[in-house]
Amino acid sequence: MAGILDKIHAYAQSSLLPWGETGTIISNEAISMLAQQNTIPGHVVERQALAKSIYPLRYLRNMQSITIKGQQRLLESTVAQVGLGGLGGNLLEQFLRMGIGTIHAADGDHFEESNLNRQELSTLNTLNQSKAYAAIKRAEKVNPSVEFSATEEFLTVNSLPDFLAGADIVIDALGGLETRLHLQQSAAKAEVPLITGALAGWTGYVSVVIPGEIGPADIMGVNNEAEGILGCPAPSVMLIASLMAAETIKILTDTHPTLQGKMLVVDLASSTFETVIL
């Protein structure tokens, strides 16, 4: 990596940072070029830059909220995300922008017009397109430094173990409740923490499930009538996704406290947030 470091220094520039100090930065263009020239992922170049206190410009506004070490941990992390719909599309957008280095996702569904009210990846141009394909195209546009793959498949009990292999964290962005327990159990068998969230109308919940501990899927059942009756308004979807993303970042950067062993219940209609001990 010595050669890479020399090249990083060659493209780095001194700049006044947002928090008032003078520091060293490197542009996204330079990172992409170095990644291509050396046939390595952009997140590897970014990690090397941060190791020398050179800030990739795209993450500059992450700094002070998370540390250099925290950003490095995100860049070297692998996320396995199941679902690319309402919650999943919003989560993917945030993970790409925060700089999680490797993301594997799966969703066998296609976009339809009823998705347009809340799904980040759903546009007039992506109608009838597979959610996996739309996610790949979005990732290329937002952050090419991230190694992103998406499988056009509804995962099963049999296919989940292979999908989760090598992940540092599992994201439950499923719609409905039918298969959430299978995912929770598969994450536990893989000994990987799970971030889960769901909503119906203006209410929703978020939780962190550590392997061997109880999770929402153990107590919520599989009845999806609430979501069908109450709908999925965009503010609820985006808020639950943001809370899940925040818990993911905290787990990956070893920041406390988290919602481990708890369930945060949100009701936007009454503007209330309650924490339930599981």
From TrEMBL:
Question: What residue stretches are annotated with the THIF-type NAD/FAD binding fold domain?
Answer: 59-276
Name of the protein described by the UniProt record: Thiazole biosynthesis protein ThiF
Q: Which SUPFAM superfamilies match?
A: Activating enzymes of the ubiquitin-like proteins (SSF69572)
Organism for this UniProt entry = Pseudodesulfovibrio nedwellii
Source domain of life is Bacteria
Q: Which InterPro entries match?
A: ThiF/MoeB/HesA, ThiF_NAD_FAD-bd, Ubiquitin-activating_enz
Q: Which Pfam family, giving just one, matches this sequence?
A: ThiF
